[in-house]
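Hi F.,

I've been meaning to write this up properly since the lab meeting, where we talked about keeping a consistent format for the predictions we share between groups. The idea is simple: the sequence comes first, exactly as it goes in, then the structure tokens exactly as they come out, then a line or two of notes. No screenshots and no reformatting. I'm using this chain as the first example so we have something concrete to point to.
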Amino acid sequence: MTKKVIDDAREVLNEMREECECQGKYCPLEFLVMLILTDPRLDAQRILEQHKCVEKFKYEESEKVRRDIGWEEAYKLWADRGYAARFDKIYKEGMHHPKEIYDKVISPDNQVKPSSQLTL
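Output, unedited:
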């Protein structure tokens, strides 16, 4: 992993920590950072940005149902609703604004065809 990649990941992590709701509790973000820094094959920035989007999604979904849906359910809903596919379509290297990325992913204007409808 190059110094630039690590520095970029640190920058993204620092931005995310400012908004993180964990505040001293177990933080999946910290786990992801450790995973990313120990496996050079992973795209650190992409993983961190998508995690931040899922964090916002988790908060909003928890508010809707008036209970904490938890990380496992948040990630499952994120994928089941097609947001993971949208993120893959929308995200470009160097994007550093999780709120803007999230807004684009959630927007109905950015729908992705289900895999059964994809054409080759």
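Notes:
The CA atoms of residues 6 and 37 lie 8 Å apart.
Helices lie at 3-19, 28-38, 44-65, 70-80, 83-90, 98-106.

If this format works for you, I'll send the rest the same way.

G.
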